[in-house]
Write a structure and sequence with these properties.
The chain is an alpha+beta fold. The protein has eight helices and five strands, in the order H-H-H-E-E-H-E-E-E-H-H-H-H. It is about 40% helix and about 20% strand. It is flat, with a radius of gyration of 17 Å.
């Protein structure tokens, strides 16, 4: 594994063997989220994150495997887009309440695109019965609006990456209120 990082460096394994050892160590610590039940699951998440340019810890915090599919937190999906200044000129929250969330983004060389997600859409999709939706509707609306906008405008960057709400029957009990 890489030497202890100095300011600005990312701690990351350089080989699959190092990633496997890191996954085993993190799993043995007992400090990973409950859903990461084995070193193999931790390794899969670390490898998925590495493909996206994420550190192991960022991956373990923000990537979940649900029904065999890696799903990313909405904040991470938007963050991946925002890390691409060659494509993304801006990605901003325009409106947020317990009934609507609206984001706007501008892809370089194109006109701004604005997208909203409403509580009515969440109700039609059967989402509002979930615990996080009852407790934090404003945060959940922001998550759906930002993830949908990122995929709509930047499919080449985040196409195929999903938010847990988009996997039928999935409920991840982490939220960023």
């Amino acid at each position: 594994m890489t030497a202890a990082p100095t300011t600005g460096e990312v701690f990351a394994p350089r080989t699959m063997a190092e990633a496997w050892k890191l996954a085993q160590t993190f799993h043995a610590s007992g400090l990973l989220p409950r859903g990461i039940a084995s070193p193999e699951a931790a390794f899969t998440i670390i490898a998925t994150g590495a493909e996206l340019g994420l550190s192991p810890m960022a991956s373990l915090r923000s990537i979940h495997v649900i029904e065999g599919k890696p799903v990313l937190s909405a904040a991470l999906i938007a963050g991946i887009v925002q890390r691409r200044p060659d494509l993304c000129e801006g990605f901003a929250l325009v409106e947020s309440s317990e009934t609507i969330a609206t984001y706007e983004t501008t892809r370089r060389g194109q006109t701004p695109v604005r997208m909203s997600f409403t509580i009515e859409q969440a109700q039609r999709a059967g989402l509002t019965g979930k615990d996080n939706w009852r407790k934090y509707p404003h945060a959940m609306l922001r998550a759906r609006a930002s993830a949908e906008l990122a995929r709509a405008v930047y499919p080449d960057v985040v196409g195929g990456l999903y938010d847990p709400d988009e996997i039928p029957g999935a409920e991840v009990r982490t939220v960023e209120p």
